[in-house]
Each structure stands twice: as structure tokens, then as C-alpha cells.
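Field: COMPLEX_INPUT
Field: COMPONENT_COUNT = two
Field: RESIDUE_TOTAL = 969
Field: MODE = joint
Values follow.
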Amino acid sequence: MTVTSTRYLQAASETEVISDRDTAKPPPRLWYAAEPPFKGYQAAPSGGFQQSSIDTAIVIDNGASLVRAGWSFDKRPRLSFPANVARYRDRKLNRTVSYVGYDGYADATTRGQIRTAFEPGSSVVTNWDVMEGILDSIFVKIGVDGTDGCVNRPILMTEPLANLGYPRKTMTEIIFECYSAPSLAFGIDSLFSFKYNKGTTGLVVSSSHTSTHLIPVLRSKAVMSSVTRLNWGGSQGVEYLLKLLRLKYPNWSPSQRFAEYQAEEMIREHCYVSNNYDMEVSKYLDWSGLEERDHIVQYPFTEHTVIEKTAEELARIAERKKEGGRRLQEQAAKMRLEKLVRKEQELDYFKELQGRLTNQTKKEIRRLLDEDEIRDEVQLDKTIKELEKSVRKARNKDVGGPENPEEEAATFPLLDVPDEQLDEAGLKQKRHQRLMKSNVDARARAKIEKEKEKARKAQEEMLENERRENDLEGWLDERRAARSAMLQKLKDRERQKADLGNRKSLASQQRMKTLAALASDQPGRKRRRGGDDDSFGANDDDWTVYRTVATGEQSDDEEEEDLGAGLKGIEAQLLKYDPSFTEQNTREAQTDWTKSMMHAFLRGPRPFNPESQQELHQIHLNVERIRIPEVVFQPAIAGLDQAGIVEITADIINQSLSKPEDRDSVLRDIFLTGGNTMFSGFDDRLREELRSVLPSESVVKVRKASDPLLDAWRGAAQWAGEPGFKQSAVTKDEYFEKGSEFLKVSISVAVAACLQALGSTLTIRQEHNLGNVSFLQQA
Amino acid sequence: MAPATPSPEDSHQQLLDQLDLTLKPRPFRNQAWKPSQRRNKNIKQIIAEASRKEASVLVTQDNSGDSTPLPPTSTMGTGAVTPLPTNGNAVHSNIAQAAQNLSTMVLEKNLQIAKSSGPIATYTNIESAPSLHPAHQKHYCDITGLPAPYTDPKTRLRYHNKEVFEVVRTLQQGQAESYLEARGAHVVLK
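Field: COMPLEX_OUTPUT
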């Protein structure tokens, strides 16, 4: 009982949904795919070098997404461009050209030659030729005049946290030996940003272009032993989105690849961090409100031009056609008339001839007939009769006179006469009459048959109606069974069609077997066993063997239509008599696109027209909008075998910080910086999740950097004006005098000094760890 | 006769010339700077080289007692003073050996510092560890990204419902593998 009631309930709610689905969605809002980020020629900002003194530092935030550079007195970096160079030999000019940063996006040739300075997916510099190009460009554009053959200003640069020894050594080499800078210091971008935002104790969560770092800072010094890196950042997000899009639209037109800068733009524009991912994602493709969640990105396309004709033109064409038809008809009528006249004349002539023949001698008759090439009087009679008939027919056609009554009274007198009594002509006549008679008989038989069939159908219908009236349930069950059988058949057919596409499938193998059996001369095993009595074709299903052999599209359609028509008939019956079978239960409604979740996923809340070039060049972003930023919280989504930031934070708080007061003060300042934290909802989500893993009484405060992108540079510029910078920078003399070992030590101190500048009072000792890495220890 | 207006190609070439870094004077560069041809190394190479170096140094360190004729007194403790070669043995005044002594000393000093101050943060060891939290092992549909209660045993793809399953079964060859790759669950042949 309960079951049936729920079924009705469901049906009711479904109707509601359907009626909701019937209402058309508002016209879509389109976003357009990004153009290559080419900015045209930009004159270098002038006056920097003149304004600078020998102590003014050049500050370079050497980030993997954008390199930012400027003088330490600037309010914001003068230059900001992607860390890549397009350098190649131009065959036409016969020289090497190189375009740095956005200039590399100038045209298709330069775009194809772009190389980045960083190892993909990390912020470690690995391509030093590109790096030199970037540095060259920076020094040229900020106006270093180089009169004494060197960059005569100190340099402050950022580097990744826990940088490897080799890249640091190489960078130092380049700065001192190629550019002969007076001194150099390294620092860490996220810590600069923290310092600029006046942080002293807290947890720096820096999610940047290539990685996410979590750095606990206690009283202005980083707790290096619990620094953690998650190998996920904006660039990995871009890669992931590209992968997903290629899979989502495998038949995307090859002329328009999904480009990285387009994916970057999509992530920036459309992605956000969901506050409750599991709940939101499971409802993301629901019908209601889908038009809000589904964002359409339109790629450029060319519409195939269909020449549209106006109504006037169409009318003119129709008129012309009609005119032509009329003219043809007139012509035909004229010709018919001419023929008729000719025939009438002939008829008159023959009739007159017949009249003349009476009362003539035989010889005279012979002569007259010969004149007209007629064999004998019988033939004359026949000719006259035929002419009369055709004249009458023609007249009827033109004038529309009464049907010929003679037809029905067709008699076959000769058939009863035995052959012996007939001459040659009579025999011929008799044969002809027999043929005619069998014709007439067959027609009569067919008529009777038709009548019988009609009667049978009526009888059947009556019986069925009777049965329906007597036993509705049974009848309905039968209908339902028939319907499901037909559905099954349709499904099977579809599956078979799909299977034949796959060469290894059972269906394909079966097909090859059948073909081989048909081609071989030996009779098959079955034939031998069953003798010659071949009952192939008696059963309708036998003919499906041809379906398995033919792979093309040729014959499918008609049979499909047959099945479809049959199904429709049954469904119509069910609709009429079955109260539980409603419009929504029909196959058509079931396969309706508004019901399809895949349609919602691929094409959004509107119908899809595969003919439209515009719609073929649209990307629908829906689940992706929260799926991409979610990876930082759940790296397993993208196959990254690392813990998410919430788990890392909990680990750092609970395990690395031993003192409870440290724990509390760190939790009071969780600081977000870096481009990948700019998603809306990032801070709320982090706060929510932290609250769920931390003790209930702990106070969690999450804040964002005032400018997550530029604050690192600003912090560095600020520090470059402080005495800490001068103390910790390595000078050129030190480099040349004391060599690489000292260099490493000093530079590491410089990194530490960045932390010192934050106000650290503790001694900071660094460590050169046997060639590999490591630079900083707190004792 | 030069054309009055430059053709589009000409103006584009002009723009390119304007952008071209190689055409700009760069007097601040040291003319004698000739970088090594093989300075571009990827991270894998760098880490491998570093760890090889480390390993070889460790071996030297282990053997230091045997190869150095001087007693171990010189290496432990403060390690600040190099013992003088007082016995006048020609072998000991060998410069190579002296250098070896020095490097051993530095190493040991470093080792001592390392011991005293705990592990050192390096590029490789600050990576976050795999997640241990069972709540984070949620399954999402490989195709739509929705929660996925099912797994297709044939392709190993996770899927949301029977409609997605139909799509899974009609995937072209190789497509299923790329879906797995996006989740990092594909088969890697070595």
C-alpha cells in the first residue's frame, strides 16, 4: 500500500518538475574566450634611474606567473610580465630575435616559441637563458644606463622557499659575473607580504602560481622545521581545467585549441570556493537555478551562411513554379485536343468508309480496304471501335463526362466454346479473353480478401475491447509487457550498434563469423545436420542476421521507425486506458533532454542544436567552477597524494607548536596571500573547516593580504630601504674573494635576515647542507 | 617609389622590431660573460646530483678514520684547530690530504650542528605528506565531478548514476584512461 502511494506522490512531484521544465529559460549570458594577452608596445617608464642613488635597490619578485620589478622607492612595481621569452632565429631577417613577457604573445609565430624560465609546476628556475633574457629586459626597461658596463645598483630578489642549492648558486653567478651588481640579497615572497601587512605571529598560507606553502611565523621568525609545501597552485589548476575540458568536449574543433591563458581567465572569472563542497556539488546539475550556475564561454566561430530568402522572394518563386506548371498543363491540353481532333477525323473517315463498303462488290471492297492498308472488314470494325473508345475517353478526360459503363459488363463468350469450333483468329481471341478473365477474377478475389481482412480487424478490435472491458488489469499487463519488450529490443539494437564499433566486441566477432560462414563453399554444420530442409525466413527473427552483417547506416532507419511506431501505438493505448501511465512515462518524455543530467553537464539548461556553429563553439562551465579551487582542500580530487591545507594546518598547530600560547596566537592570524587564494569564499571555507578540526574554544581569525598579488613586492621594496638589507646582502667583493662556500652562507643569512627584519631577536644560524639545499635554522 | 602607407605586414614587422630585445643596447652586460652550455638542469637532475654528492661525502666521512693517518682526536670536539703535522712525515704534508682533513672537519662540524638543531628544511622534505584522514577519501564521478557511489569494474572509472554509466560504456578507446589520468589513477608503464 505504501509503495503505491509513494509512486503516486512521486508522479505528482514529477509533473511539477516537468511543468517547471517546460518554461523556457531566459536567454543565456555569454562570456567570451580570452584573447592572447598581448599588450602592444609599451614604452618603458622613464626617470627611475636618474632618481635612484647608488644605494637604491632594484627589487625583483621573481614569481613563476608574473615577474614584478621596480625601484625600491616605487609605490608599485614598474614592470609586471610573465616569466617567459620567445627567442628564435628569424629566417627572413636572418638574425636571432627575442621577445620577453607579454611581447611573446605578439603573433602566432612568437607564441609558438615561448619558453618559460621555471620548471613546469614549480617555482625553481631551470632555464637560465630565459632567466637572463628576463633580467636583461628588466634592466633595460627600468632604465639602467650601464655607462660603467655594469648594473650599478644592489639587487633584492625573491626565491622559492627552501630553494635548491644549484639554482641559487647559478643565479648568484649571473648577477655578479654577467651584470656585475654591487650586492645581492634573496628573500621569500610570502614572508615579505606578511611583513607588509604588519604580521608578526601567525600562519602564512601562500597559495601561488605553482605551489602552496604554509609557514608558521612566531614573533617575526619562521618556524622552518614545520614549513610545509603542497604541490598545487594556479598553474596546476589551469592544467587540470584544460584536461577536464578536453575530456568534456572530445570533438572540439581542432582549429581552436583550449589555450592556457584562456583557462587562466576562466578560472579567474568563474571559479569560486564552495562553502560546503559535497552538498553544493551534488546539487550542481539540478534543473532549478541551473542557468545561474552554468556559465557559457563563447569561442570565436564562423557561421555557415545560409542564404535567407524573404517572404516576397519565396512567393515569387512559388508563383513562377505555378506559372510553369500551368503553361505545361495548357500545352498538354492543347496537344490532347489536337490528338482528339485528329482521331475524330480518322473516325469520321473510317465510318464513312464503312458506309461506302455496304452495297459494294467484293472486289471493290478489297480495293477500298487495300487503299487504306486494312486487312479485312473485321479489322475495320475493330479499328473503329478502338477509335471510338479512345475518343470517348479523351472527351471524358477533358470534359469530365460519365464513366464508361461498358467495363463492368465485360463478357467472355468465347471461353465456353470448344477449341474445335474456332478458327485461328477465334483461338487467339479466346486466349485473350482468358487472360482478361483471370485478371478480373484476381481483382475480385483481392477485393474479397480486403473485405475479409477488414472484418477480421474489426472482429479483433471488438474482441480486444471486450477483453479490455472484462479484464482491464490483464490487458494492461499484456500491453506493458509488450512495451517493455519493445524497449528492450530498441536497447539491444543500440547496444549492438555500439558494439559493432568496437572491433574486439563479441558482436563484431560474431559478425566476422557469419561473414566467413557465408563466404565459404562448404555447407555449414547446421545445414548438414538438418538436411536440405532450410526453414530460413520462416521466423521473422531470422532476418536479423542481415542486421548483424551490415554495419552501415543503410537499413537501420526504417526498422527503427517500425519499432518506434509500434512503441508509440502501445504507449498511446496505455495513455488512454492506464491511469498510472502518464505523459511523463512515455519514452519520448523519458529521453527528453531536460531530464538528462549529461545534457545539463555538457550543454547547460537550454536545448542544443548541433547545427549551430555558435553552440558548437561554447564551453559550459558548471561543476568545474567549484571543482578546480577545491583541489587545495582535497588534493586527491586531482590525483595528488598529499594532505589538503586544512589537514596540514591542523598538523602544524597540533604537533609542531608545543606551547599553547603560541598555538593561540598563531590561530589568531591566519594570513592568506598569493593569487590562488583570491577565489571568493576561500577565507570563509578555511575558517569553517579549521573550526571543525580544532578544539571548540580556539579563536580562529583568517585574513587576506590587502593585495595578494603585489604585497610581496611591496614588502620587499620596503625592506630594501631598511638597514637589515644592507647587512645581509652579499657584496661583489665578498663573492669574488671568498668564493661559493661563503657565498652560500651569506646568502642564506640574507634570507634569514628577511625574517630578522621582521623583528626577530633570536640568533639565526644557517646551514649549508652538503650541497643539497637547506639554508636556515633557528637555534 | 615607396608606398605612402605601410602594408599590414610592414607595420607588424615594425612593431616586432620595437619589441625585440636583441635590438636594444644592453651595455650593463659583461662582454666576457660566457655561461656554461650545460647550466640548464631540471629539478630531478639537481636533486639527484645533490643526493649523489651527499652520499659520496658520507662515504668519505665513514672512511675518514682509515684514510687519515691522524687520530680521530682531531675531528671531534671543537674541530676548530687543525693539528700540526709534527712528525715530519712527508705523506702528511701532502696538500690533497690536508684538504681532505679540512673537508672532513667541516662536514663533521656541520653534522654536529644538524644534530643539535633538529632536521633541516630542504626543498624535498617540506613537501606535505599523504593524507591520513579517512574522511578525505571521498569519491567523485570522474566524468561529471559529482559524488560517485559506484565504480565500473571494467574501466575502473567512478560514476554518479546510470546515465553517466551509459556514457562510460560508450567511451572511445583510451578516453577512459585519460579520465583516470586526470585523477592520477592511470596505469604507468615503466
